[in-house]
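Quick illustration for those who missed Monday's session on complexes.
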Amino acid sequence: MDLNLQAIQAHLGGHPWHDSIQVFDLVDTTNNLAKSLAFQGAPAGTILIADRQSAGRGRLGRTFLSPAGVGIYLSAILRPNCPPGELMHLTCAVGAAMCDAVEAACGFRPGIKWTNDLVCGTKKLGGILVELGLSPSGNADYAVVGIGINCRQREADFDESIRDMACSAEMIAGKSIDRNLLAAHMIRALREMDTTLLSGKEAMLERYRADCITIGKEISILRGDEIRHGTALDVDEEGALVVRYENGQIAPVNAGEVSIRGLYGYIS
Ligand code: BTN
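Prediction with biotin bound:
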């Protein structure tokens, strides 16, 4: 079935965000549209979903390929109204919420490659891109939470550049996936996450740790031109990856890129 508003709403019943959802055939990127609506005052719970994006974006300036008919490209506006430093765990919270949504709609639970990739085995199922806007007071004025999930692709449908590294929910579940049902579960999970975002931080991170496949693995950290090797020990209370480097030093990693040695060829 095509992605459509009525079907998503029917799955949501009387959900508080039922009337603040928009579905588009094509946008450049739902995150940009969400940021511009947030700037104009759109409330928390504004949800934008596209069947296709012409300029889908991922972290670190990467492209997120977003073809028609096969994926869900969804952005939500949140209004956390707190200092941005209290939102360090937001990407992790969204990750755990998306694992819940995929499990409920598709019957399997993906893992999370720290911080923002949904994965199944060695392949990427989707990604998360969180962007904050600040108010003049320095508080977060809005958070735009963007999620892309590969739903209906067969292996041959993926662009050659990512074919070895990507998977879809249908490939994993071995059955047809209803994108409208998955979108509804994503919206439910985001709302639940939003209601306890600041009060339930430690519980969220505990759930994230259980889903995070990076913990315990030998990893490489790429920052600019520098590569360091170590072991991922934990995810700390800010959502940073705690790494023991080869020289024995233990330190949190907040930025840069982490690859798991011998696995996950989609990041060099
Ligand atoms: C990543 O893999 O680095 C993150 C990908 C995030 C993709 C989603 S799709 C909806 C929203 N719009 C975008 O342009 N990006 C996010």
